[in-house]
TrEMBL record:
<protein>
    <submittedName>
        <fullName>Spermidine synthase</fullName>
    </submittedName>
</protein>
<dbReference type="InterPro" id="IPR029063">
    <property type="entry name" value="SAM-dependent_MTases_sf"/>
</dbReference>
Length: 234
């Protein structure tokens, strides 16, 4: 099967394109998103994105949870989160309207129904500006974030202030006293960033997510950072 281009558009972030192809090694139908020449996301391996939700929500105590997802992408973090029966409201912030449109058009079998779930809101907005400006009306039980490649590898230069003590404290202020921040990274754990998380949260650590990679014949890893208990909350 040749590569099919399902959609493309010029955006303020660059040229975004959604492609579909059959991978012969994994025998999977794979969706890929490119931003200019950069591969932004893929449905080839999704465990890391799913674990952002699983690990984050596992650290939250309580029911009728109000959860914010930063970055919709192909939807795996949001989809995994809404499978948790405790999640009562899931707000997903996505900067690019094209991405939201893909889900409203039900292009992805794996996350079909996400856009129409009555507990889910897909909102076009800039997550980092939302944090920076404090435009949150009510606090959340969890922030689940999958936007940049890593704390030191950003899609845009104006994302950088989020990964500072001030930025992380601003994120922590959006959470309830028991709240949790969960952040995906495509790089190995960085002790410097864990230490920075501890300036905003009572507890912080990094979890390595390991998965088989048939393309390399070995294993690959992602990292999920967790910050629990915002400092100064309550």
């Amino acid at each position: 099967m040749k590569i099919e281009e399902l959609d493309w558009a010029e955006t303020e972030w660059g040229t975004i394109s959604l492609r579909r192809r059959h991978d012969r090694v994994t025998d999977k139908l794979v969706h890929e998103v490119k931003l200019d020449d950069d591969f932004l996301m893929s449905s080839q391996f999704t465990l890391g994105e799913e674990e952002v939700a699983r690990l984050g929500l596992a650290a939250v105590v309580g029911d009728r949870l109000r959860v914010l997802v930063g970055g919709l992408g192909l939807g795996y973090t949001a989809w995994t989160a809404i499978q948790d029966p405790r999640v009562h409201q899931l707000v997903v912030i996505e900067a690019l309207p094209q991405v939201i449109g893909w889900h409203r058009s039900e292009l992805f079998d794996d996350t079909r129904g996400l856009a129409t779930d009555p507990h889910v809101q897909l909102v076009q907005d800039d997550f980092f500006d939302l944090v920076r400006s404090g435009r949150t009306e009510e606090p959340y039980d969890a922030l689940l974030i999958d936007i940049d490649h890593a704390p030191d590898w950003h899609l845009r230069s104006d994302h950088g202030d989020f990964y500072t003590e001030l930025g992380l404290r601003s994120a922590a202020s959006m959470l309830l006293p028991h709240g949790v921040l969960s952040l995906w990274s495509d790089e190995p754990p960085e002790s410097v960033f864990v230490a920075m998380l501890r300036t905003a949260f009572e507890h912080a650590d990094a979890h390595v997510v390991t998965f088989a990679n048939p393309l390399t014949g070995g294993e690959s890893t992602n990292t999920v950072y967790l910050g629990r208990g915002p400092r100064g909350a309550g």
